[in-house]
Amino acid sequence: WCHVMERESFENLAIAALMNEHFISVKVDREQLPDVDALYMSAVQMINGSGGWPMSSFLDTQGRPFYGATYFPPSEFTALLQRITQLWAEQPERLLEQAAQLTSAINRANDTRGQARAVGELEVTRALATALTSFDTDHGGFGTAPKFPRESTLYFLLDQAQRRAKDDTSNASAVAALSAVDQTLSQMSAGGIHDHIGGGFHRYAIDSQWLVPHFEKMLYNQAALARIYAQAYQLTGNTEHRRTATRILNYVMRDMTSPDGMFYSATDADSEGEEGKYFIWTPEQLAEVLGEKDAELARTYWRVTGEGNFEGTSILHTPESLDTMAATLKLSVSDLQKRVDEWSDALRIAREQREHPLRDEKIISSWNGMMISAFASSAVRLENQRYLDVAIRAANGVWTHLRHTDNTLFRSYYDGKASIDGTQADYAYLAQAFVMLYDATRSRLWLDRALTLTEKMNERFWDLKNGAYYMGASVVSGANLSSRPKNLSDNAIPSGNSVALRVLSKLFKRTGTPRYEALANQLIGTLGERIAQQPAGFYYLLTGVEEHQSGEHGNLQYGARGAVRAKARKDGHRIIIDVSLADGWHINSHTPLQDYLIPTQLTDESGNPLSAVDYPQATIQKLGFQRAELSLFDKHFALSATLPNIKTTSANTTDEHANSNHYPHSTTVLLQIQACNDKTCLAPEKLPLTVF
């Protein structure tokens, strides 16, 4: 469905009469029914070699597709309708045979049977090489026009940058990965794909320079890019990334949040019948709002000209860095930044008087999960309590309004009513959000909710016979689907299977429940052959594979099957580790009374003890499994040490928007523990804790 075919064909009385006489026409909202969309898109791709929207699919009386394509001009669409009508009347067996063959092919494409295959360093390295090979060194991003952000690729590169920046052998690839992300994010935020007035990003750019966007704004892009910009700020120290992340989140709070605290889906590209009209400016309009003196500076800063860059008007963009523009305008960097913020506020207030693009006020469970995750993770990375409050309010809203009494989910909520059963992605994305809230708040409520949704997801969508998750149920809105699709690869957003892998892995580390580890391993093995064939189709999944097999990274870690929680922070030249233990659990002190027990210890990554370590006062206790007294730490305590030297990593970036050619190198320390309760002692562990 699209507004062009709507105007040209579906509102054409002759074509509408032809459709109504010979067909039952069904309009599908692919955002509400992504599994239905995926099923018939598979057929379109098999028929044509490619797909896209609008999607026009022709089905038999069992709902099986026998023909489909994308856009048709009115004359071609009319001829196609007439030809299919004739064939259905005279040779229906031809269309039914085509439907049977297509359905069989779709079922084979979704078939995950086969021998499990391990996934590891080889597949990750190949995926990294593919990403860096496709990187546009001139303009950032990946591939050619049209340019999409490719968030799954950016997630993967950030993860690889952090994992590989540990030794000289892998450091070059870490620098390349982080440099690619840094340049991409800088040039995206400088381009017209970025809303320089209101914050947030449009869906994609039609050119390779990120200048001219398709002006639609999608919630899922805001969610992913807010997380990515915040993480990139943490890894690079580039304050422009922090500013961009903050502007995205502030835009969502201001313009995309419902009275219940949940998040709307999208805004259209058009207003007043013209694409982009809400977002574009002329020199005269700037002068009217800012006054001639400031408008002259703003025109130079945002490259607004009389000729324009979009149908005689200008899309705001900043092809030169803030430092360069400050020198050009003979202002200090801080003064220019202050003025830009003031101009943006004034122009946004003026823009509010224009006719707004239509806002799609559907509230979609999975997209809300994405946005909750963005607010929760950004609250930690940007140290902003308000973002955490927003995440909690939205999460409670979804739990209240989009959940059945049996803890199954609805897909969407609109005008006070929830409808359509949730898909697997709805469960996975919300469970991921609840895990992030648990990490940020330490409230068991969020872990319990994540566990509840995960159990329902496994019960409703896991393929017991062949492995991996189905997208949805076999019956959708009362209709039997001719095939039950699986979303296996990462596309515009990470697949539900990829998100589920990270959820399973995190839940295992936070609860110690063996079935979560087993299911994560099974999911990796099930998709192993597909990953080996095309690693670059599974960037977010590979991020989850690395996390599951090599451990999470960051300043928060869980040990002892979730009984130990350790969080690191910097305080000047010292690192402080806050440790919490579950009731009934202890860890050996730094001076155990028995030689064979493993002491609590802080070391660098090479195992060298840190200097000037302050340990808490140990308690002397007896546990049920041993008569001898033990020297232990329990409940909540902190230990601190002098930070190892923080190094910088040189980057050969040519991006003039980057703050520096040296990225701050994260510092990782190892917390060695051995946890025990009254019944047993677990094996010793070393928890890596990273501060920036």
Please characterize this protein's 3D structure.
By secondary structure, the chain is an alpha+beta fold. It contains 21 helices and 27 strands. The strands form 10 sheets. The protein has a 4-stranded antiparallel beta sheet, with no helix packed on it. A 4-stranded antiparallel beta sheet has the order 20-21-18-26, with no helix packed on it. It has a 3-stranded antiparallel beta sheet with strand order 5-6-9. Strand 3 and strand 4 form a beta hairpin. Helix 7 runs antiparallel to helix 8 and helix 18 packs across helix 19. It is globular, with a radius of gyration of 27 Å.
Question: Whole-Å distance between the termini?
Answer: 47 Å
The description of the largest β-sheet is: 4 strands, antiparallel
Contiguous uncertain segments of 5+ residues: 652-662
Name the beta content range: 5-15%
Instruction: Give the helix tally.
Output: 21
Instruction: Please state the average pLDDT score.
Output: 93
C-alpha geometry: globular
Percentage of residues in helical conformation: 40-55%
Quaternary structure type: single chain
Give me the count of strands.
27
**Structural class, from helix and strand content?**
alpha+beta
Q: Output the radius of gyration.
A: 27 Å
Record the strand order, biggest sheet.
15-16-17-22
Q: What would a concise description of this structure say?
A:
The protein has 21 helices and 27 strands. It is α+β, with helices and mostly antiparallel strands. α13 (322-328) packs across α14 (333-351) and α15 (365-381) packs antiparallel against α16 (385-401).
